[in-house]
Write a structure and sequence with these properties.
This protein is α+β, with helices and mostly antiparallel strands. The chain has helices at residues 2-18, 22-33, 38-44, 51-90, 110-124, 138-141, 182-190, 230-245, 309-313, 334-342, 355-358, and strands spanning 128-129, 135-137, 161-163, 174-176, 195-204, 215-225, 251-258, 261-270, 298-307, 326-333. The protein folds into 2 domains: 2-90; 110-361, BirA Bifunctional Protein, domain 2 (2-Layer Sandwich), CATH 3.30.930. It is elongated.
Length: 362
């Protein structure tokens, strides 16, 4: 048996030396060292040999196996290097030549396109676009909006503080704004009512997963005038939903809580991917529910509500007497709207700058 093992060693070494490529070398490895190869079978049969033969046969077989494995590994490195050199030589291109076809230049990112689309809708409804600082004071970001001192969003784990002058509760302390809502107060400070503004821009929160990133974009809306009701809010958002998601969309308002609106509502749009929550595509396990709305027929898109009189009280001296004027506010994530409209499954794809992904929305 030892003679046969040595014969396998010689045959294996010759086959390894003769292999002209990595694919051929892999066939040799399987033929001599694979699970069904003769040498491994001999090793598994050592226990059945007479006791005086086991040690010598086992030692020889293991040594031959190690020699062949080392030879295969060394040969693989040599062949892989040679194949790579050949591929690089064959694939060499002149990088000074113009691309064919020429790449399209000046294309807008999907987030920018969605932001401009939203702006166009609300400008058509009579709103004005305003922008504000991204490094904001605690007063405008929390205090003037009625956010309680004990609210979790004030914690160091939920907000990026830039310069806590005394502590994070000092109204003068600086932070990266967590929403575009501070511009509600700033906009009302800059002009008397009536006011109809939208505020698009970047906001910051320490989150990072498939639906959250540390930096993202929101669009805030504020309307203050006389005799404004919740019906005006619903009509505005219905027009927005139909302009963005299609003319057949409906909206519904569900009771909710936000510190700076009263009453507050979550706003849903009727699903544009199914009919009454039933999808045309049935999953392997027979589930007919729509994957977008989870079978409910509705998709949550934003939060809104009537502006709390306590918020207006901060700017009452500028003509915003809560006894005379009222209004509504709403806020939405621009990335969320883009993801829903274009079927993007992971928020992080919008920031990876993968041309193959971005060119889908050209």
């Amino acid at each position: 048996m030892i003679k046969r093992i040595e014969q396998l060693r010689d045959e294996g070494q010759a086959a390894i030396d003769a292999a002209a490529g990595t694919a051929e070398l892999e066939e040799v490895r399987v033929r001599f060292l694979g699970r069904k190869a003769e040498l491994p079978r001999l090793l598994r049969g050592v226990a059945e040999l007479p006791a005086d033969e086991r040690a010598a046969v086992g030692r020889t077989a293991n040594e031959v196996r190690r020699q062949l494995e080392a030879a295969v590994e060394a040969k693989a490195g040599t062949l892989a290097g040679a194949e790579l050199d050949a591929q690089l030589a064959a694939d060499r291109i002149d990088v000074t030549l113009p691309a064919d076809p020429a790449p399209q230049l000046g294309r807008l990112h999907l987030i920018t396109r969605t932001r401009r689309e939203l702006e166009d809708v609300f400008i058509g409804l009579g709103f004005t676009v305003v922008e504000g600082p991204e490094v904001e004071r605690v007063y405008y970001n929390f205090d003037a909006l009625g956010v309680a001192p004990t609210h979790p969003s004030r914690l160091l784990t939920d907000t990026f503080y830039v310069d806590p002058i005394d502590d994070i509760f000092d109204p003068r302390s600086l932070l990266l704004r967590v929403h575009t809502s501070p511009m509600q107060i700033r906009a009302m400070e800059s002009q008397p009512p009536p006011i109809y503004v939208i505020v698009p821009g970047r906001v910051y929160r320490p989150d990072n997963d498939a639906t959250h990133t540390p930096q993202f974009h929101q669009l805030e809306g504020l309307a203050i005038d006389e005799q404004i009701t919740l019906a005006d809010l619903k009509g505005t958002l219905l027009t927005f939903a139909q302009a963005i998601f299609g003319p057949d969309r409906e909206v519904r308002l569900r009771p909710h809580f936000f510190p700076f609106t009263e009453p507050s509502v979550e706003v849903d749009v009727s699903c544009f991917n199914c009919a009454d929550g039933v999808s045309e595509a049935v999953t392997e396990d027979g589930d007919e529910r729509c994957s977008l709305c989870k079978g409910t027929g509705w998709i949550e898109i934003l939060g809104a509500g009537m502006v709390d009189p306590d918020v207006l009280a901060h700017v009452a001296s500028g003509g915003y007497d809560p006894e005379k004027v009222q209004g509504f506010a709403f806020g939405m994530g621009i990335e969320r709207i883009a993801m829903l409209k274009h079927g993007v499954p992971d928020l992080r794809l919008l920031y990876d700058n993968d041309i193959r992904f971005l060119e889908q929305f050209a």
